[in-house]
Design goal:
Shape: globular
CATH superfamily: Ribosomal protein S6/Translation elongation factor EF1B
Distance between the termini: 14 Å
Largest sheet: 4 strands, antiparallel
Number of strands: 4
Helix content: 25-40%
CATH topology: Alpha-Beta Plaits
CATH architecture: 2-Layer Sandwich
Radius of gyration: 13 Å
Order of helices and strands: EHEEHE
CATH class: Alpha Beta
Length: 96
């Protein structure tokens, strides 16, 4: 059964040559390969953290709304965990 989800992904672009759009293209391609259907992607901009965890001062926040099977979400989460450009990722099931 397909479910509606929302993801908040924080990108670490410090010292990276790729632009946010290139990183976001890679992330969306990996999510679609896992079997998720992306509906909306919002770039919320770069924001500073109130403290510096793991020596990272700021991150680019991306909000993604998508639908898919829970198994596809688990596969995408595992694949994105290996991506060095992703600092943190949070997922939430949307309530209809």
């Amino acid at each position: 059964m397909k479910r509606q989800y929302e993801a908040l992904i924080v990108l670490d672009t410090k010292g990276k040559e790729e632009s946010v759009e290139q990183i976001l293209g890679t992330v969306s391609k990996e999510m679609e390969t896992a079997g998720l259907k992306l509906k909306q992607i919002d770039n919320m901009g770069k924001r500073k953290f109130p403290f510096n965890p793991r020596h990272v001062e700021a991150g680019t926040f991306i909000n993604i709304q998508f639908e898919g099977e829970p198994a596809a979400l688990d596969a995408a989460r595992a694949k994105l965990k290996l991506n060095d450009n992703i600092y943190q990722q949070y997922y939430q099931k949307k309530v209809a």
